[in-house]
Design a protein that fits this description.
The protein has about 180 residues and is an alpha+beta fold. The chain is globular, with a radius of gyration of 16 Å.
């Protein structure tokens, strides 16, 4: 169960266990920062840490966070298997984004107002996933709900930035078929 996830953390405070240390995973990190100050270095990109920022990082690339106040650095994080991310990207028609920004550049960032509906919804989806992953029964239903949450996070990211268009109302049936096939 949950073989598509390496880690989920919700409102983690303090040093990230990977901060400033090299780590190579066959995964993608989705990090939502809740505090400000400092920066992320992803390959050769310097990206500012701000409340509401969401980083998508190719974990195999050199990267680290350098918050200005490490003991107050708060974030939510989901690390998912690259194969699952690739499948979601194809399903959501994000292959161009994935190839250009995640795989070629090592990652990217979306900046949202901390009180925006998108920020709050993504935070709630990560919290729900965290609770299902850490405290749940780890059954097929919980696993499916976490998969749906991850897909909804990506939809929220790209819908709010106008980079993805959902053309019809068949998303729920597509989600169900994707979960069953994975």
């Amino acid at each position: 169960m949950f073989d598509f996830i390496s880690e989920i953390s919700y409102q983690a405070v303090g040093h990230d266990r990977h901060t400033n240390t090299p780590h190579n995973d066959n995964s993608i990190e989705i990090i939502q920062t809740m505090s400000s100050g400092g920066y992320f270095l992803i390959r050769n990109q310097l990206l500012m840490i701000e409340p509401g920022a969401i980083f998508l990082i190719n974990a195999i690339e050199p990267h680290f966070s350098n918050p200005s106040e490490p003991d107050k650095y708060m974030r939510n994080k989901i690390i998912i298997n690259r194969n699952y991310f690739d499948e979601l990207s194809k399903f959501l028609d994000l292959d161009m984004y994935k190839d250009n920004y995640i795989y070629q550049n090592g990652g990217s960032v979306f900046y949202f107002d901390p009180s925006s509906p998108t920020t709050i919804k993504i935070k709630d989806l990560i919290k729900d996933s965290y609770n299902l992953y850490r405290n749940g029964t780890k059954d097929k239903l919980s696993e499916s709900k976490v998969k749906i949450n991850i897909m909804q996070i990506l939809i929220e990211l790209f819908s709010d930035t106008k980079q993805i268009q959902i053309q019809d109302n068949s998303v729920n049936s597509k989600i169900s078929s994707l979960i069953i096939s994975y």
